[in-house]
Amino acid sequence: MAKILAVTNQKGGVGKTTTAVNLSACLAALDQRVLMIDLDPQGNGTTGCGIVKREALPTVYQILIGRSTVLEARIRTDFGFDVLPANRELAGAEVDLIDMNGREYRLRDALAPVLGEYDFVLMDCPPALNMLTVNGLAAADAVMIPMQCEYYALEGLTDLVATLKKVRAHLNPRLEIEGLLRTMFDPRSTLTQQVSGELVEHFGNKVYRTIIPRNVRLAEAPSYGKPVIAFDKQSRGAQAYSALAQELLDRRDGVVRVPAEQGVEQ
Ligand code: ADP
Ligand code: MG
């Protein structure tokens, strides 16, 4: 059965979409069967993997309102994984879902028939705690939280952890934190180092060992409709997301690796 991860953070611009697209591609490169779900009406995750939005109907929107199925809507990308696309229409789901029964569980129920076909389902959540994110959190086994190590990051994290507790209490008792991902990392900044240290102090091994550096190739790749490993495989961004994909598999399989700086990898 697939492991279902919601890539989420109510803050915008922290690297959710970049992570969802690039991690999907890097997991696929490691022979994992991946479905990426674009839950953001901006549809950046959809275009970022080479799908032209206006051709991308039906989308997650039709799935949520019961007019389409995952089987009908999923699209195979050129990068070895499937995508459930989104476009601006998805913004209307909020209103359309108001009167629907079980509106928090529409996505979970729609996914059930295909979970046997995938190893990972990655959901790119919008930067808000709206009904789309709630559908993502209700369907997920765990959340992956990308964050920039800056001054307000820890405060935002406290809010997010409180939200997750509520979701666990009311909607999805099995929801865990899979991990916290340090993104757009600039090791020269003292503040970044400080916040990163505090993060590890509070969350221990919930913080991924892999750090995503600030890398211009990661920012350029979406305008070519490609994940970074298909755009510049040698870039630091591509290497970092490949390492993150491997770390996810290691965690899932219980493999322990000694960090490179401390010794030879086992
Ligand atoms: P979110 O989905 O959380 O709003 P995005 O993934 O869209 O965040 O990232 C916000 C912006 O930062 C985008 O323009 C993206 O290309 C850029 N970006 C994301 N991660 C990196 C990185 N590691 N290095 C450089 N630019 C990045
Ligand atoms: Mg985004």
Structure, described:
Pfam families: AAA_31. This is Chromosome partitioning protein. It comes from Propionivibrio dicarboxylicus. By secondary structure, the protein is α/β, with parallel strands linked by helices. The chain contains twelve helices and seven strands. The chain has a seven-stranded mixed β-sheet with strand order 3-4-2-5-1-6-7, sandwiched between helices. The two termini are 28 Å apart. 44% of the residues are buried. Bound molecules: adenosine-5'-diphosphate and magnesium ion.
Structural features:
single chain, 266 residues, alpha/beta, Rossmann fold, 7 strands, binds adenosine-5'-diphosphate, binds magnesium ion, P-loop_NTPase, Chromosome partitioning protein, AAA_dom, DNA_Partitioning_ATPase
Query: First CA to last CA: what distance?
Result: 28 Å
Which term fits the overall shape?
globular
Helix proportion: 25-40%
Number of distinct helices = 12
Q: Could you say what the CATH topology is called?
A: Rossmann fold
Report the structural category: alpha/beta
Q: What small molecules are bound in this structure?
A: adenosine-5'-diphosphate, magnesium ion
Largest sheet: 7 strands, mixed
Number of domains: 1
pLDDT < 50 stretches = 261-266
Approximately what portion of the residues adopt beta-strand conformation?
5-15%
Per CATH, the class reads Alpha Beta
Organism: Propionivibrio dicarboxylicus
InterPro entries: AAA_dom, DNA_Partitioning_ATPase, P-loop_NTPase
Protein name: Chromosome partitioning protein
Pfam families: AAA_31
Q: TL;DR?
A:
With 266 residues, the protein is an alpha/beta fold.
